[in-house]
Design a protein that fits this description.
alpha/beta; Rossmann fold; 8-stranded mixed β-sheet; AB_hydrolase_1; Pimeloyl-ACP methyl ester carboxylesterase; hydrolase activity; Epox_hydrolase-like; hydrolase
Length: 274
Amino acid sequence: MRIETRGLTFEVTEGGPPGGPPVILLHGFPVNRHSWDDVTPYLNAAGLRTFAVDQRGYTAGARPSGVDAYRMAECVADAAAFVDELAGGRADLVGHDFGALVSWQLAAEHPERVRSLTAVSVPHPAAFGQALLSDPEQQRRSSYIDLFRMAGKAEHVLSRDGGAGLRKVLDGVGDRLEVYAAALLEPGALTATLNWYRALVLEDLVKVGPVARPTTFVWGDRDTAVAPATAAAASDQVTGDYRFVPLPGVDHWVTDAQPEVLAQAILARIADAA
């Protein structure tokens, strides 16, 4: 299905029984809404109505030009609109990678729209931003961002040789690698999705307030992009009920690698928030 909001048209994969409790799922870079395809059947079987949305930049109908169109404030406003349009103003929220950053910020700034939060792989923006500003280990792990912020060069590195660089970034996602790569190799897609990195202001991340909603943070201990200390710091940014679920031997691609384990963590959070 598609929804039109904020002047853009977003692609959505819906599932589960009509009228079931709504769950909004937000993906990260460089994947898309299909990263939830192995997770949502477990949620649907439990009676939940799921909506996995392609965020701005990931489909032609929601691909505004210019870096400023991808600032976190815009992406968070999109997520608020998704909750309003798809869930009647309140939903359980699940986000991975950049989708986690958006979800954390929406829960902090608009708690009335978030029944519960399950964030995957990336911790609270203040914890992540502070680590990027001051922790050498996290800076080392996030050094790839320097390339992604280079307009033109990043697109060339990722798309040359038929997208070999992009496929290297996607190594570990499994059978959906070509689905993700093909979508980002469409004209304009790489620039739009990389603009999320170019619009990122670390000082703004640090200013995001604490989350009071019931929250679970799922993180794979083999995640090369997020240091253990950065992941642990998320707990300092939650004033509501909080659960940290580290996954031994799992890398950044939790949605593709461990969909059932992730689904059980989501279901437990939603049940506990009842």
